[in-house]
Amino acid sequence: MPPPRSLLPVDLGRRGSYVCKACLDSLRLTSSRPWVARQPSRLSSSTSRKPQPPPQNRTEDVPDQAQLRRIFLEELDRGPEAPSASTVLDVAYFNKEPSGRFRRLRDNDEFAVESSGLDTEIETAITHLEKQMMDTAKLLQKMEKQGDQKKADELRRQFKKTLRLQYKGKTGPEGEGYGLLRINGFSGPRQRAVEHLNAFLARDSVVKGGIPRPRDVAECWKHYSAARKTLATAWENVPRQVWDFLWMVLSWEGDGVENPNRMQHVYVLAKDMQAAGVPLRDAQQLLAIEAMFIEGWRQEAIDAWKKATVTLGSNRETFADYYELGVRMLCLHGDTDRAQRAADTLLRSSHPPNARILLPLIRAQAEKEATVDQAWESYATMRMLLGETITIEDYDEVINTFLTFNRLEHALQAFVDMMFSKAIDIRGKTRLPLAVGNHFFIGKWLKRLIGAGDLDGAYKVVAYVQSKGITPSPIQLNGLVGAWLRSGTAENQDKAETLAWAMIQARLDYVALRRRQQGVERRGRPGRPGLPAYRCRTRATAETFSLLAENYCTRGLHGRLEELFEVLRQAEVGPTSFLMNQIIRSHSQNGQADEAVRLYRTMTTEQGVRPDGHTFLTLFNSLSVNRLVQRDPALSRQDMLTARGFFRDMVEADWTFDTADIFAQLPRTILFSMLKAKDFHGMLVAARAMRQLFGFHPTEALLVEMASGSSTSLLVRTKRNTDRLLAGRRTIEGLMRKHRMDLLRQGHPGDDMSAEERVAELHDVLEKWILLKGGAPGATEEELRPHLEEAARDMGVYDVVVRKDADEIARRIKLNKGQGIPLE
What we know:
Elements: H1 21-26, H2 45-48, H3 65-76, E1 94-96, E2 102-104, H4 108-116, H5 118-145, H6 149-167, H7 191-201, H8 214-232, H9 240-250, H10 262-275, H11 282-294, H12 298-307, H13 319-333, H14 336-347, H15 358-366, H16 372-386, H17 392-404, H18 408-419, H19 439-452, H20 455-467, H21 474-487, H22 490-514, H23 542-554, H24 558-570, H25 577-589, H26 593-605, H27 613-621, H28 624-627, H29 633-652, H30 660-676, H31 680-693, H32 700-708, H33 719-745, H34 755-773, H35 781-794, H36 798-801, H37 806-812
Antiparallel strand pairs: 1-2
Helix pairs in contact: 5-6, 7-8, 9-10, 10-11, 11-12, 12-13, 13-14, 13-15, 14-15, 15-16, 15-17, 17-18, 19-20, 19-21, 20-21, 21-22, 21-23, 23-24, 23-25, 24-25, 25-26, 25-27, 27-29, 27-30, 29-30, 30-31, 31-34, 31-35, 32-33, 33-34
PPR repeats: 576-611
Pfam families: PPR_2
InterPro entries: PPR_P_subfamily, PPR_rpt, TPR-like_helical_dom_sf
């Protein structure tokens, strides 16, 4: 993409070198400078009061003939203002700058301003007011962040009038005679876009309180970009106050979210102001250079920055910002030598040093092998200048920089500097000092990197410290594997598998050494791409296998899960209930429910694995009534017996609820499984047993859901499902009214029920609904006893439900000691 026309070098090939004598006599001064250089500096008010030096001889200011020829050719390059053969010779006015250069004035109005001396006062007042506005806006933001909204609102009201005077047309020392912001002088078919822009400028709600809203910025750019083509036909019709207002809104920094296209807007606006001949103030020039760099014109922006050294770089107000911008741009451009000189100029000046400007320089120098030592020196300088004010974030950025470019030794040294108050030098040493060379210290670093999301940096640290003879802890590597797997990307999945299988191989080698055997064949998957191959010395643990098992089960990789389970036996790692649950779930999802049950029996009886609540949740979900869309009556009858067996194992197993999620899901899954299998007597026994052992209390929402049908089919909002929900609610409400009528007949006062009475009501409604669903709504307890006793024996809760043995209930209860279950 070619650079903008205004930034192209002057093309002299199409013009002759002859300049007539009349033109030479009329020219006395040099042409104006580009928009990226500082515009003519005005004398300060204090300087204007000093006695003026005697006028110099006029002949001393007249350039020679060669200079005038060059000036004339540069004047021809001014574009639309360049004279043509048909133009009439006009009088040109020029202004001499303190540097000795000359600038041609645009028109008679500017000549009047320069000759009257009013421009110095006006510009000083505008600059002072603009600085006051920005300081107040920053103060408002700071007060709002600190929670002092009341004082911020009061300050905004006080400053509101002054701000409106400046930006809504009342500008100048006296604040009168300037009217509202408006652009005049346009007509034709494109005038409508200008009128829309004028309507935007006239809004009272624009820039309320001095802080543009995201809507203000968006609408300002919308209207201005639509009117640009029309305005370009006569830029001189746009008042300076309008340019200042547009710049204030479009260059609003915000927090990066309110004005995401800030630099692109500034770049376009600065080019338009250049085309209009409107001089940019110093701060505007800096921002325009930065916008040019960000928008892709890097070399042009750096050239403009170099040309502004005498102006912006020597101005006390812009000195620091100028050199900081230069350091950032030069570092990104790769010119570290010039960036170093700019940083040295800034840090050695009388201005308060901003040592953090060395951070981009450290990154640029650390990228190249030849300058990595300079990067370390820059870091040492920054740390010395910051002293006690250096923050953990500063260290993190330096460490991340060195890790990014594989400067592991420098990164470790920076982390050591952060962790220890005394100096410990590790660079160039083969073996690390004992305070650093241990897996506890390295584990802190890995934990910090993994927590910050720098997973690749964490792996680089693992490989580096292992080369120094340090074996990282399995806990840290398992954390890295888990973080990679949770990221969800294919690349990180491969990295996690590669590292996990390397840890498994280390475990297999350890088992082979322990058995004094050689050449144990690894039956795991081969090394995967994504990480450099290295021999891991950290041995896998049960957590490593669990991470892979969960990932394979979630992704439906049943073959890899079976392979992993086989390697688990070879590695002699005792299987855990988590691994067993993943294997059962994978077999169930793969349509091998019988194999899942067989595996569960084998692992619990032969290998001594203790099941938990998640195990039984997985087993109940493996029933055909929960897996098949089209139910088979024969399989449903088999599920009735299987579900009772699962319930018996669940009651007899030694486990307790570990999470609120399993406490909510397991009772619900058991009731729905028996409901689908049409085991209403077993469902009634399960409800009574879970009340004693689980502290289970049904909610009204669960009762409505059961009365309406399967919850999975009710997720889709259709008219049929809505009718089912309404019918289910009517059923439950009818049973609740019946229960309360019974209470009134028994002498209940009829006032609000206590929490215990509400719980008893819900249990009574659940049992009545089960009997209603089973076709025996009026069955008495005596009539149900034989069926309930049979189901209780099959489910292993005869002593709990029928005999109500307190000791047996206390022995089999599944709640932790002191764990309270809400009644509602």
